[in-house]
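Changelog note: in this version the structure field was regenerated for every chain. One regenerated record is shown below for reference.
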Amino acid sequence: MAGPTSSAPQRPTKQQEEIIRGFQKLRQEQRAMVDKVSELTSEITEHKNVISALEKVDSSRKCFRMINQALVERQVADVLPELLLTRGNLESMVEKLQQQVEAKGKEIVEYKTKHDIKIQGEPDS
C-alpha cells in the first residue's frame, strides 16, 4: 500500500511571509485612507445641509453649535463663515487623501508586480 501523496500546500517561507505581511500592510493602509475619505465626505454633507439651512434664516437669529463637547449659543452671522471655512478645509483634505489613496494603489500594484503576488479569484493580467 502506497503512502499518502504530498498534495498538501507548501508552507510559506519566512521571506514569503514577510512579503505577504508587507502586502497586507499596504492594503490595510489604503483601506484606512478610504474609510477616512468616507468619514470626511459625510461631514462635508452635514456641513452643506447646515449651511443651506442657515442661509435661509436671518443673520441675527441665534443658533447653537457643538464645539468639542460644549453646546455654544451664537448668532448665525458668526457661525456661517466658520462653517464655510470648515467645509472648505474638509474638501481640501478629501482631495489630498484621494491623491494619497491613488498613490497607495500604485504602490500596491508595484509591490504585487515586484514580488509576483497573485490574488485568489483575481484574473491574470
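Spot check on this record: The mean pLDDT is 91. The beta strands are 62-67, 70-75.
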